[in-house]
Amino acid sequence: MSWAGTIYALSTGIVWIAFTCFVVVALRNLVALAQLLIAAWVFLTRVKPGDGARDLWHRYADLALPISVIAPAFNEQLSIVQSVKALLALEYPEHEIIVVNDGSKDDTLGELLRSFDMYEAQATQIAALQHTKILGTYRSRRYPNLLVVDKENGRKADAANAGIGFARTPLVCIIDADSIIEPDGLLRAAEPFMYDDRLIAVGGAIRIANGCTIKDGSLQKIGIAKEMVPRFQIVEYLRAFLMNRVANAHTNTLTLISGAFGLFRRSTLVEMGGYRHDTVGEDLELVVRMHRFMRDNRREYRIAFVPDIVCWTEAPAALQGLDNQRARWQQGALETLQHHRGMIGNPRYGRIGLLALPQIVLEDILGPPAELLGYLVLPAAALLGLLDPMMAVAFFFVSVVFGCVLSVGTLVLEEQQLKRTPSARDLLRIGMAAVVENFGYRQINLWYRLNGMRRFFRKDSTWAAVPRAGFTSA
Amino acid sequence: MADILIADDDPILVEILKFRLEGAGYSVVAASDGAQALETAKEIRPDLIVLDSMMPIMSGPAVLTALKADPDLKDIPVVMLTARNGEADIVAGLKSGAAEYLTKPFIPQELLVRISGLVEATQ
Amino acid sequence: MSFYQDIVVTTALCAGAITIVFLALVLRRYLSERNRARRDERDAAITRSYLQRVAGHKVSEADTWPRRARLKAISRILPLLRGGERTRLLQIAELDGVLRETLRISHSLYRSSRINAIQSMQQFGSEACIGRLREMMASDRSPRVRLEAAFALGANGALPPPRETLRLLNALCRQPTRLDIALLRSAAPLYPEQMLLLLEDELQDAWRVQIIDALGWSDNMGAIDTLDKASNDPDPEIRCAVMRASARLGHPAARRWIMIGLTDPVPAVRLQAIGASVRLGLRKAVPAIAQLRHDPELWVRLRAEQALEQLEPVDDVTPQAAPVA
């Protein structure tokens, strides 16, 4: 090949890469815009939860499906007692708390046993979904609805599975031990079950607790963290929960219920074998597998989302810590897609196969590298005179400026509908974060996600050897 | 005649309680947040304090702790108002020295009964 | 202008527009915070004025208070009043036109406003409100609004007869939800006879089950014969409902078929029978329940164990009303 030929091939290559990046990023943002509009429509026509239904719950308490709240705890010695007290005080006609001590190295178990006056009990496990050994179960003399399960250390998925096995109620709520549940969070999340018996899972909006005043395991006062990283995450969470999840739930394509709070039908979870143990993205995997399971078995089902806040969770306060979390999320998404690659684009799985999973592919596989690459290739190509410089400017607008539009748009939804920002000043602060986020933070995040991809490819062979346990077919 | 300090950030509830208590012959001073309540308490030394547990600036339990730490104020009986099912609040309240607690929503008569009991006991 | 320029301009316009909307919301929030003290003062004044009027004082008041603020105050005071005071407050509200305002909102084009109005009317529960609620339940275009109106009526003990309720909610052509069950239960004590008559209609079994369940809430001992007959029904769901209803009704005659239910071939019925025995404190059932500890069905064994704990006298543990799951 001649020198000129090489140059020509190279420049054509660059132009193609630039176009691909542009199209992927534009497509990704168009999807997000559609979601924002759908979410706005949902909020506009939504009926705010009132006292009427609540009155009914109180009168006919037995119609409210009893719930077991499953809280896996690992090394929570300092906070576990307060957390459990807050859980016991949740507003709900009938709920049980199952704390699973996941082989803590500290005195988590001892704290529980002393504070709640507990004795060793022989609780029967209805389904053994965990891979580790159960060491003992304890009941409280003071609170008949508290059960503590002590087990060998596993991962969160394993601890949650152990807890699910001990639950006897029709619904189970799986949380993180450090999630701060809103006093009426269970009630809100369980409400959809009153209207629709086909429901198998409900997720709810989660907010960031950094900067809030927390006392005795419950939220005293909403606040905004001083650091920028948590503020950026507030915007991210708003986007994820108020825009993405609300829109997906409305179009019946919800594929993720956060591990920090999820309400599930127990029988379905048990049939499916609970969480998978061999993925870091067990919460995404669970819901995707749920869709698969129900559709494979041709059962009618629904998965819903309540936009009301159900729980608060502590987010990484600095970039250090965030990097790991984001890389893990990315790796989890890739693992899930790999497990269920047969569903992607498969009309057998209806809108999950045709819409929801391709959306994850666009968002999680194609999106991050395309955007990062675009930042480099487009300006370079424009400088070399290979492309219309306006295209590079347009790329900047489509990725960064449009990102601001989406973030501020979600914030508008929040203020118009939920109004859970403490004051006008804080609202303005988050608004600034929503803009600033797109210059730097967003790009750093993309980088973390590429790290997650690297981890995924590195570990690829290691987890392939793990038996596909917990995957029951009916 | 006993002086009562009511601290709650809900003006409608404060007004209702004030009306009832004044009707029963007490003189009532209101504060709309925790810090103001503490200041007023220092100023007028009421015979009884009604504290809401969820208030801006300083929460009820925080005010209570401050009251109990002040030798001049620590003997004033405190009635704590808590939200539905706020068991953690109740436990914390009693531990830090609230004489009584009432769970919202309550009927004003209930509060009146508790208050008159406490006021008689101290006088 | 090139395609890319179009993109840039459109995006910039979007960004500008959304920023303006956002800033407007921040301003709205800021103003409402600044006016908060004044608003609180006004709310307190409205509250005071109503309380004084309820107590029979003559009050000369400025009529500049907006109806919505009055409505808010009244709906906060109402749950704190009882008996005569409550009635008086409602009369005053009617005089002030606050009620009229609510009734007006109940005609709003927005579904969520209409539902808000329903919630206020539920609280007031006056005759005009009940009338309007019935109207909404019968003819509102949104099924959700009709359902909410039905709840509000249920809460006020003013539901139309059950056959009518089910027809208005288009219920019979679908499966019953938990909310339908709640409505039937709140209709049962109002119309015990009609509930029994309803059972003679052509009904899906799923609905028959729920009507039998609701009989338990009717406080009508006349239902006992129907339950007796239904306790032999071939449909196990119906037998389950009979167990629940009998436990709720608490008629001594029910003991006979609850005891039979403990040996029913279908596990779900045995489960409900155990629950019923606990609810009625049926000591006589203890030996039969003890047998069920060796039941082939895990759930029955678990429930039986729990039931024995509740039925057998343990020193400091009072038997709780068992959930009728």
Automatic annotation (TrEMBL), chain B:
<dbReference type="InterPro" id="IPR050595">
    <property type="entry name" value="Bact_response_regulator"/>
</dbReference>
<dbReference type="InterPro" id="IPR001789">
    <property type="entry name" value="Sig_transdc_resp-reg_receiver"/>
</dbReference>
<keyword id="KW-0597">Phosphoprotein</keyword>
<feature type="domain" description="Response regulatory">
    <location>
        <begin position="3"/>
        <end position="119"/>
    </location>
</feature>
<protein>
    <submittedName>
        <fullName>Response regulator</fullName>
    </submittedName>
</protein>
<feature type="modified residue" description="4-aspartylphosphate">
    <location>
        <position position="52"/>
    </location>
</feature>
<dbReference type="Pfam" id="PF00072">
    <property type="entry name" value="Response_reg"/>
</dbReference>
<dbReference type="InterPro" id="IPR011006">
    <property type="entry name" value="CheY-like_superfamily"/>
</dbReference>
